[in-house]
Amino acid sequence: MRALTRAQAQRFLEAQRLLQQGDVAGASRIARTLAAEVPDAADAQQLLAMCLAGQGDAAGAQAAFARALALAPHSEVVALNYCAWLRRGGRAREALHVIDSAPATAQTRLQAGSIRLQLGEAEAARTAFSQALDLQPELVQAWHGLASALQAQGELKAADDALQRAIALAPGYAPAWVNRGAVLRMLGRLDAATDCLHQAQALGQDTPEVRNALLGLLQDRGQPAQALAAARELVATAPDFVPAHESLGHLLWEHGDVLAPGEDPFAGFRSAAAARRGHLPLQFAYARALLEAGHAQAALDWLQPLRAGVDEPALDWLLADALDRLGRLAEAGALYARVARRLGDHHAGFLNARARHAFRSGDLALARDCAERAVRRDPRNQEAWSLLGTAWRLAGDPREEWLFGYEHLVGVVDIDTPPGYDSLAAFLQALDARLARLHLASREPRAQSVRGGTQTPGRLFGRDDPLIGAAEQVLRDAVERWLAGLPHDADHPFLSRLRRSVRFVGSWSVRLRDAGHHANHIHDEGWLSSAFYVALPPTVREASSDGHAGWLQLGQPMDSLGLDLPPRRLIQPQAGRLALFPSYVWHGTLPFADPQPRVTIAFDMQPTG
Predict the structure, then answer these.
(1) Residues 118-164: pLDDT tens digits?
(2) Which residues pair with 346 in a beta bridge?
(3) What are the C-alpha distances in Å from 190 to residues 176, 180, 181, 220, 465?
(4) What pLDDT is attached to residue 1?
(5) Which residues is 570 bridged to in the sheet?
(6) What's the rounded mean pLDDT across residues 205-217?
(7) At what angle do helices 208-220 and 190-202 cross, to 10 degrees?
(8) Are 126 and 150 contacting, i.e. CB atoms less than 8 angstroms apart?
(9) Distance (Å, rounded) from C-alpha 50 to C-alpha 52?
(10) Are 169 and 140 in contact (CB under 8 A)?
(11) Pairing of strands 528-535, 450-455
(12) Whether pTM exceeds 0.85
């Protein structure tokens, strides 16, 4: 590899200056001359690559970057620039190969961690960020990245520790304050989360993302009116920001009857999407909101005009979903097949959607095939296992029982009375009263299983509330005692992941009213799911084995699959009792008729330790 002469180095620096000023043409003239004069100089080839990239010549940039890397295989700078260009072009896997082949420096390991996070490989990202910190312990971005990897793995307290270290090293580093706000919100520390986000704003990070997080915290804190006002302001000031429209829509859906009587919860979203027909994320988000609310025809009508100018698998997938829900199964099937040719086996979510359609269409072989492929693609995908188990049930395959284990993998456990309470009944009465203050919505959330009731916002556990904290502790203890009695099975999707302890990944309370129930569903984000009974109306407490009013039912697939299958097991609720089951087990509840509410706490867990 040849080095540049002093005169050539001066021209190199001039070209870099021109690039920074946006004069790509001027920089390119110098770069081409240098590359011709010293074709074996890595710096010249790298400069040429950056100029060609700026001119949109991807093939030329690729060749020049590859030439530069071949000339200087141990150059950190070349590897980092090549990697950055590949990432900008959406070629993250290739970028990872380049950076993993580079010398292990703090900066190359930092980039490797960032790419791994982008690819959803949290454990590998965590390793890369840790390696960067071994090389440079005060690298703030690496502490920040490590926190993101830990957060992705659900290790929220460790993520908070890493973010505190980043903030201690660089108090003015706003992204760390933003991420700490998100982590603290997930931990239930709402006041501290709000303070972090306000600090980020004071440091110049007053972005739509931060404002949206703040309005979410208002809702978590039981201030829906203030959250609604903040959402309206955010939509007005950032009309292209999709999450703002989603937040406003959800608030109006759940609280509109009280806070905005008569207002169409979709009106603002529809107006924004109509004014920005070329903004595809906004179009797709609006259509998904309509589908979640059961307005399939409106979603179809909205999406159809886009087909003339948009060739996107995401559009065909949404159209297929709308047609499927309208019962136009042949048309939906053709679109699902078209999307499948584009996506192949690379998207477990799509394979699940096509499997659901196949069940509705009566094509059980296709349903099973899609579910099997989804499981191979993502072995921890809870819906894929639920669909595969349903296919096994329809085929009379004994693996249904092996998978779902309606007796030995379903637990019914009584909790202990927390310290400081005279009796379990006194604790449950106090807990019921506390939960009632958190149920402020007037109707159920959109796209959830609740029918005829309300659900608390945000995460229930982790809040600075001693009573809820006591419930969290006794429920964790009960879960870990039950898990200790289960056998490990390396081939089983649930039993293979048994560990010494568990962590909460979601927690909430549901208050069902007269005639309320849960539609049959599974939990995508969990490994172990639950229902803990806090307060029950007389009709549920006294329900006979004939009526089963308000009982938990397990094993009956979601209604929309169109399968006439009865539940495999029914469990009668009892106050103070906890039901546990793998998150992929279909579960729901039967309606009850009683003016008194049926109050539960539910949570999802993942193994740890």
Answers:
(1) 998 999 999 999 999 999 999 999 999 999 999 998 889 999 999 99
(2) none
(3) 17, 11, 9, 8, 11
(4) 53
(5) 553
(6) 97
(7) 160
(8) yes
(9) 6
(10) yes
(11) unpaired
(12) yes
